[in-house]
């Protein structure tokens, strides 16, 4: 399980840097009366000039002298706000931890420590992480426990997989389901994803849309949502991550391409949309935040970002995409590859998915020299097989998406608080420079010139709505035998998602 971060409101760069120091964090916790023997920084999230989130795994001594390890995070704010927060949580009766109180004010009088499962933005986490409480919630989902059956706490097991404080909690569960009258029991494996908002309901709709149609996309079966859409439950996939097969030379490259193609030609209409400019803007914001406490980091990346800006794709390729595809997001199931974690699934450029996969393969091959030949062979086979289905004029855009994904991966050593972050990031930046497109820069538009518009953008009114002049449709992809998905824009600029009937 990953650990929780420290959130610091109105902090300066020096304050944020202190939170990254294992010695400083450990000293603060011990001065506050915690039996701490060690602290590991596991996660960093920054808002320059405003706040810093630093994740910790706190090691200490339990009530009986036994060694314990607990995820925890510190929320730093003004003394008044910190005392108010602690007072509020004491009224809520926080769950005790093996290290003592689950929520407490630290010795500096402005930091509040939360120990799992207490979470300021995930107040329901104590329910989502306890099988004793989950059994009632899961028994209400007919796809999990049909009528006349219930999930039993005894014989059921919950294994935390990933936890980002105030963001998400993911766990695997082995459920024992028993009939009320027959007393016969069966086992079922599921995955739980818990969020601070109704994101779980969105993922459920996305999974259902991708699995429907004539060619279902290989994604886990959604089993339902609970807790106002914050808890999403899906069928566990029988299989393993694809990385071991890639390293051993056993991975089915053509099967991966076939699965990717099924996703990218799906007729599913997903609510979110991603563009190359969205990706670049997010990347720049991420490196600007790192620069706040690691001066010089963004400057080393800036030349690469400028090269990406000059080669940003301008073509219109908008299909259903995974949105965060890398090797950890693919499992090898009994019927082939399966895509997991659809939180960022959207309408976007399919080459973004391929670029994310290639970027991870490049880094993996760089980190595993003994298996590099197998990794490169798999990478080449996947890339060549996929690009056969891509128009020749569009293939060079893959370099842009690989470069963006590599710069995202170069951020990870900083976000995980690794001590070797500079060295690891430098190696990934070198890879990014080597794969960037070599074509000439795209010409910049002349001042006052009208920006080029997608050839699939229709400025005429929808013929079915003759009384609404001024409506336009931005069409994602002109299917030959289906309605065209896109956005309708009214004269005020507001957009709605739907399909365009070209007839």
- As for the number of domains, it is 4
Number of helices: 15
Which CATH class of the largest domain is shown? Alpha Beta
The overall pLDDT average reads 86
- Uncertain runs with pLDDT below 50, 5 residues or more? 1-9, 450-468
The end-to-end distance, rounded to whole angstroms, is 54 Å
Task: Indicate the structural class.
Answer: alpha+beta
How can the largest sheet be summarized? 6 strands, mixed
What does the model show?
- The protein is an alpha+beta fold and 503 residues long.
- The chain folds into four domains: 7-115; 125-235, 2-Layer Sandwich (Phosphorylase Kinase, domain 1), CATH 3.30.200; 240-435, Aminoglycoside phosphotransferase (APH), C-terminal lobe (Aminoglycoside 3'-phosphotransferase, Chain: A, domain 2); 457-500, no CATH class.
- It contains 15 helices and 20 strands.
- Strands 1, 2, 3, 4, 5 and 6 form a six-stranded mixed beta sheet that branches.
- The longest helix has 18 residues, at 276-293.
- Mean pLDDT is 86; it is low at 1-9 and 450-468.
